[in-house]
């Protein structure tokens, strides 16, 4: 089974993205082994010249390196990606942990268009590998996670693109 590290970009403990991740895990648990990274808040603010790399950052890098694939599931905050997610990615700029790494991007928000585009741009810059089949924009997420049959179908198609 391929191991997928799922990173929830939301800063909210009870977010729609959290519900969406649970729905995704439920749909894909017979095909993939999922691990949730829920410690974005533990990462200190990015420092381009740290005296020492913080343990929380080293742990994040290790989790990314050990995963076969990384899935980002995030809302859009003020037409951008959330600051905690951006911070984690900034810590990764001087590494190669995302170079050639197979990733998926799900942006689930009220609109999400600009945040979705931004995360794709950042991940291309970091050298990650993804295709249109590995990205999904879910606008109007409130009230859909866990109750919308069409969403189940979209998530199943998204997961099936990763089975190879």
UniProtKB/TrEMBL annotation:
Pfam families: FMN_red (PF03358). One of its GO terms (cellular component) is cytosol. GO terms for molecular function: FMN binding; oxidoreductase activity. InterPro entries: Flavoprotein-like_sf, FMN_Rdtase-like_dom, NAD(P)H-dep_reductase. Residues 3-139 form the NADPH-dependent FMN reductase-like domain. Gene3D superfamilies: 3.40.50.360. It comes from the Bacteria. This is NADPH-dependent FMN reductase.
């Amino acid at each position: 089974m391929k191991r997928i590290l799922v990173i929830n970009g939301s800063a909210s403990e009870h977010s729609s993205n959290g519900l969406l991740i649970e729905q995704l895990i439920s749909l894909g648990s017979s095909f993939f082994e999922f691990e949730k990274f829920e410690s974005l808040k533990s990462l200190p603010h990015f420092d381009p010249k740290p005296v020492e790399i913080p343990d929380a950052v080293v742990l994040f890098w290790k989790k990314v390196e050990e995963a076969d694939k990384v899935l980002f599931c995030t809302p859009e905050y003020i037409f951008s990606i959330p600051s905690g997610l951006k911070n984690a990615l900034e810590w990764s700029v001087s590494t190669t942990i995302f170079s050639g790494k197979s990733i998926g991007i799900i942006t689930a928000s009220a609109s999400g268009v600009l945040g979705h585009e931004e995360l794709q741009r950042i991940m291309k810059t970091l050298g990650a590998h993804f295709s249109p089949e590995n990205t999904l924009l879910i606008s109007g997420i409130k009230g859909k996670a866990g109750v919308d049959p069409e969403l189940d179908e979209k998530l199943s198609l998204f997961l099936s693109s990763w089975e190879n």
